[in-house]
């Protein structure tokens, strides 16, 4: 009752030993019995924890309170008038306070309420004598008779948008808006006497809206709303229907009888509200030997607690150790007996565990990130990279104990200029991101047949059912081959020719990590930077061999491209950025100078490479230094740093040229210079690598990283269900103890048919 930190019975003595704090409030909760015949109400709102929404099934508890004094565990009942007033006030404050659980949890979540449209009050309606009949509607451009929208300006009846899987309409309503600019449409079949429930969509506002004058707007086309019956779902109801029918069968294996598994390494993670991206990622991470041994085998909970600062709730090492022991010890993977619906006897109960809620871990790992600290759905890959970055920083002083290294590897781009000279660009990465070459699909004939079949169905005004859809099947080998295949770079500025030319780029790996993470680029950008998810299967074998992808570096007889023209002509020495790359990056909202630097630093290789460089160097102290000043001052300024500070950094084990570079970049501040070195590992080779000749042997960029053979065995899959990274659901499948296991939030079971082709 001094620091207000809470401990379980097994750990409270550690805090007494560490701090000497003897007085604790003991809160004991006993679950209230709930009547088994309590009826489950069907939700009518897309909401959680409020009237009409999903029941969040929160258990109710009875609490008893005592004051306990360590080390003898002397117990005093509370409330009691014999206790000092200071103690009574402190207990009252604790019992009234909101804990981490309540602060982190959005107890009642509701889909956004519809707003009044700005276009409704002054909506222009054409006097074109259109009268809409009460039934028998059809799209004026096709044979669709469902999902129809009435444009409230001209009375045209048109079909809605086409869904990602080919179902839905033919986009005629939105195409009509693009041609005419007429803003509002109402969905036919949702209009009843309750006009507020009608589905009105505003195209310029791109959302469902309220039209306060809807009765007048409908009367203009002869519609008497009071006599109409509801025949179609509104957009919100369709969303609710998709949420209640979570029958994404293939990935969740919901059509299979999955046998629950409990025990060490088989603990589920409770969904904290759209936290499945975190759960799926962490299950796979802790199935690796590096994280298992670092935070479980080699570090006990007590050890981590003793090393932690005064507030262990904000210490990443402590919270990772706590999560590891929660997931891997088996202590919390105990079957919670759940009665079978069809049985009365207690002997027929099914084993289902409750899982653990990773609240404190999420709070710590997300504290420095504006997106992960929210309750919104997130991208699992983005979270994985953020997580590894935080782990690397937390282990910065002891790289030998950093488990994130097991995922890290070196990548080398070899650029062959038309002059015959070469350049090598090296970087470190945690993932191998693969494009999906759809033209390499192995089922082209079936796809052609399906397209014909689909066209026939659409012409008949019918939908293609989900079990009739044929998706492209692309082998993983084709995706890997696509990465290492030679690629032409147009408008590459050659320092040998002093002109733009076409160069050939090939990519390889300089080291092979213990665990290779492959990212399938299923989300692609369509026109207007709209993300679209590719509906495709990737045929993944159980083992792959990528030994042939090892990059060999500068070969005998190869000549490096020169840095530039020596001498006093700074402008001629200034490297040039590819204008196309710069324009594309600027259009994404990046600073123009930063974009130029990114293009130059990646030798104008491409937009993606430049963007990756930019994202990882946004916080560089010299990011805003003009390019001409950088080129001019690179040599002179390196020699103008304080020699004593250089010696200090050398004594830390850093090379002299790296120490000089870091001090220059951080304005002579030793602490900032140390951070700069850890955050810029590629700096150690850039000066040597870019030079035409060098008297010193460069330190490899992947020095100290694990490097084995190129053969890998599949051990884990993270799959995403849904059309966008902002919605849907993530599930993990992991190969453990000779079998595949599904981790679906708090549900853990033996996998019957792991979706290897849907990762």
From TrEMBL:
Residues 115-225 form the UBP-type domain. The active site is at residues 276, 729. Residues 684-699 have a biased composition (Polar residues). Zn(2+) binds at residues 139, 142, 159, 172. It catalyses: Thiol-dependent hydrolysis of ester, thioester, amide, peptide and isopeptide bonds formed by the C-terminal Gly of ubiquitin (a 76-residue protein attached to proteins as an intracellular targeting signal). Residues 684-705 are annotated as: Disordered. One of its GO terms (molecular function) is zinc ion binding. SUPFAM superfamilies: Cysteine proteinases, RING/U-box, UBA-like. Keywords: Hydrolase, Metal-binding, Protease, Repeat, Thiol protease, Ubl conjugation pathway, Zinc, Zinc-finger. SMART domains: UBA, ZnF_UBP. The keyword Zinc-finger applies. The keyword Cell inner membrane does not apply. It comes from the Eukaryota. GO terms for biological process: cell communication; protein deubiquitination; proteolysis; signaling. Its EC number is 3.4.19.12. Residues 267-759 form the USP domain. Residues 576-617, 640-680 form the UBA domain. Recognizes and hydrolyzes the peptide bond at the C-terminal Gly of ubiquitin. Involved in the processing of poly-ubiquitin precursors as well as that of ubiquitinated proteins. Belongs to the peptidase C19 family. This is Ubiquitin carboxyl-terminal hydrolase. It comes from Fagus sylvatica (Beechnut).
